């Protein structure tokens, strides 16, 4: 994630927050390096994205929000959730999110890690 005005790197996408009732991704959690003077993880609302390509662009650092804003708004972290069949069998866990930036609004899908079958 990079700012358009300053060209500052804000971090890497670590987590996606979804509103389960709407099946909508609303927020992206950014991971920063854990150096002594590095700020903690922060979030970017999906609506703040200005461009999606090799990198995601936001206007400036004013788009950053604290993670607890989304946790308090009944959002769910997508990466790490269990994936079930309709009859309740566990298939694996969500490992990543992918999107089609050419679609408006961007269309999201997920990938899951499935245990090896013996």
Report on the structure:
It is a single chain. The protein is mainly beta and 118 residues long. It has one domain (2-113). Helices cover 4% and strands 44% of the residues. The chain contains 1 helix and 10 strands; from the N terminus they run ββββββαββββ. It has one helix spanning 68-72; strands at 2-3, 12-19, 24-31, 42-45, 49-52, 56-58, 76-77, 82-84, 90-100, 107-113. The chain has a 4-stranded antiparallel sheet with strand order 4-3-2-7, with no helix packed on it. A hairpin with a 4-residue loop joins strand 2 and strand 3. The longest helix is centred in the middle third of the chain and has 5 residues, at 68-72. The model has no long low-confidence stretch (mean pLDDT 78).
Instruction: Note the overall shape.
Output: globular
The low-confidence parts are none
Q: What is the alpha-carbon Rg in Å?
A: 16 Å
Number of strands: 10
Strand order of the largest sheet: 4-3-2-7
How many helices? 1
Content of β-strand? 35-45%
- Helix-residue proportion: under 10%
Q: N- to C-terminal separation?
A: 40 Å
Let me know the largest β-sheet. Answer: 4 strands, antiparallel
Order of helices and strands: EEEEEEHEEEE
- Could you tell me the mean pLDDT? 78
Based on helices, strands and strand pairing, what is the structural class? mainly beta
